[in-house]
Specification:
Length: 516
């Protein structure tokens, strides 16, 4: 072909490739309040930094009229660009082309880009907006999904992987986001379910809308499949940009070290105001977090799910840390099945990516009850023990009030490897609360006394004084220091600096067997 004809063909094809599913499909996409795959990439990546990989891939399917539906790219854009100057890999499904459905070549592109991200040690972001397996292509999409699931799994713990669901994500398609580290959804446009409302109706007779079954709220609040919920696509991209600035590009790097304007010697007199005088009264641990960590740096993860434990990233003296904190506002901060899953997964993410962990402890124990026992609180609770024992990053703990029983072991014990355990003078560390303990060990004396209530309160005080105050734990070396509450930011920053070069090795093994 001569030069002019070659260039003409190139320009024509390039224009076709860039036009996605065409004007009509794009306007339908916009009418649903959704952006196109390319518009999303333009919003997410630094200006003109994105380069597309394999944009001229075409479907090889011919059956059921598919030979006439072929379009460049096969319904997904893949490539790499810069987000705030850092290299990131991405796939963005194009609903305007055959509903963003996943055919053989579409899957190959996604697989290729995940493997490239992995080989380059850079984060991978996937934007999902798809009708699922391309029905006309039979078994090939299933093979494609399998390849993607395996790539997500191989990349897990090596590069951060984030999914944004900006449209339908149904059937087997949901398992790729579930295999990534974080999933973001947007109200009104995201759906994630194994089977939609029609199948649910046919199988169980239940009537439910798309939004109620698998919308952003259902997945963030009820199932915990998704970690963040936003009102707009733009907000979800802003979160990604912010989140990436806390994370290393891969597991062999340290998280980015930022400058902080928040003084490292800032005292927090407000600490004591936040803690109620009555130790049984709740308070919002997020207020403490806001004061302790660098100003306005807290990113709460999984905010709507298992609110009895708060997890998230913040900066402390400019360094990224992962926080997990008991939240007395819900279930008196007891750890239940869902809180165990939430905390354990977060802890494992932080450990994978060299992010020091800090626990804020005020916990009366694992949650009691038949539904918890039968639901497997033993197995689920064990996940936190496993995750903490396994973690080799610096592990700090600050005991605020209660640290009882197995939950103490999970949240603040030297035995699981917390490197520095600090306690407020208000800390109470014991097998259980004074009341429960006294009523067991002094049962006979209390029952035989004429004034039971009086004897009981004397015994509670005796137990509390003898066992629960933090100086007892400190005398055994199980609390490393007891600190003035107003100095907790300063003390945590110093403790972090003290442990930041920590190296801890584990015996070599293929992999552990976390109780799932
Ligand atoms: C082929 C598909 C498709 C699919 C959508 N389209 N999904 N083509 N395979 N899975 C096509 C439509 O035919 C239509 O083509 C175009 O995409 C836009 O779809 P609409 O239905 O017009 O859009 P909308 O009304 O917004 O509805 C979107 C939808 C619906 C809710 C996603 O299309 C739908 O229910 N699709 C099927 C979903 C599904 O059952 N997928 C398989 C899941 S099973 P035209 O040419 O008319 O524009 C699965 C198993 C994987 O994924 C297992 C892996 C382990």
């Amino acid at each position: 072909m001569d030069k002019n004809r070659s260039l003409e063909l190139f320009r024509k094809n390039r224009e076709k490739m860039l036009s996605g599913g065409g004007k009509e499909k794009i306007s339908i996409q916009h009418s649903k309040g959704k952006r196109t795959a390319r518009e999303r990439i333009n919003l997410l990546f630094d200006y003109e930094s994105f380069i597309e990989h394999q944009p001229y891939v075409l479907s090889r399917a011919t059956e059921f009229g598919m030979d006439k539906k072929k379009q460049f790219g096969d319904g997904v854009i893949t490539g790499s660009g810069k987000i705030n100057g850092r290299q990131v890999f991405c796939s963005s499904q194009d609903f305007t082309i055959i509903g963003g459905s996943l055919g053989e070549m579409h899957a190959n592109r996604i697989h290729e880009i995940i493997m490239l991200a992995l080989k380059n040690g850079k984060p991978y972001i996937q934007i999902n907006d798809s009708g699922g397996a391309r029905i006309q292509e039979g078994i090939l999409p299933l093979d494609g999904y399998g390849k993607i699931f395996k790539a997500n799994t191989l990349a897990s713990g090596i590069i951060p992987q984030i999914s944004i669901i900006l449209g339908p994500c149904a059937g087997g398609a949901v398992y790729s986001p579930a295999l990534t580290d974080f999933t973001i959804m947007v109200d009104g446009i995201s759906n994630m379910f194994i089977t939609g409302p029609n199948v649910v109706k046919a199988v169980t007779g239940e009537t439910i809308s798309h939004e109620e079954l698998g919308g952003a709220k259902a997945n963030c609040n009820k199932s915990g499949n998704a970690h963040f919920r936003f009102e707009t696509e733009e907000d979800s991209f802003d979160l990604i940009k912010r989140l990436l600035s806390y994370l290393p590009s891969n597991n062999s790097e340290l998280p980015p070290l930022g400058e902080t304007l928040d003084p490292v010697d800032r005292k927090i007199p407000e600490c004591l105001d936040i803690l109620p005088d009555n130790p049984k009264k709740p308070y919002d641990v997020r207020k403490l977090i806001d004061y302790i960590f660098d100003e306005k740096t807290f990113i709460e993860v999984h905010a709507e799910y298992a609110p009895n434990i708060v997890v998230g990233f913040a900066k402390l003296g400019g360094r990224t840390v992962g926080i997990f904190a008991n939240q007395p506002l819900y279930f008196a901060a007891s750890i239940d099945i869902n809180a165990s899953d939430k905390a354990a997964r977060f802890i494992r993410f932080c450990d994978s990516f060299n992010i020091p962990l800090i626990s804020l402890v005020d916990v009366p124990g694992f949650l009691a009850g038949v539904s918890q026992e039968h639901g497997g609180i033993i197995r689920h609770g064990a996940k936190i023990l496993y995750a903490i024992s396994e973690a080799t990053v610096p592990k700090l703990s600050l005991i605020i009030r209660k640290a009882y029983g197995g939950a103490y072991v999970a949240m603040a014990s030297k035995s699981l490897g917390y490197d520095r355990v600090l306690a407020f003078p208000t800390a109470e560390i014991a097998v259980m609360g004074g009341e429960g303990a006294a009523s067991i060990i002094f049962k006979r004396e209390i029952e035989s006394a004429r004034n039971r209530e009086e004897v009981k309160s004397i015994k509670i005080k005796e137990y509390t004084d003898k066992v629960m105050n933090p100086f007892i734990a400190a005398s055994y070396g199980l609390v490393d220091d007891i600190i003035e509450p107003e100095n907790c930011r300063i003390e945590l920053i110093r403790s972090l600096e003290m442990n930041i070069n920590k190296v801890e090795h584990r015996p070599i093994k293929k992999h552990g067997n976390i109780p799932l």
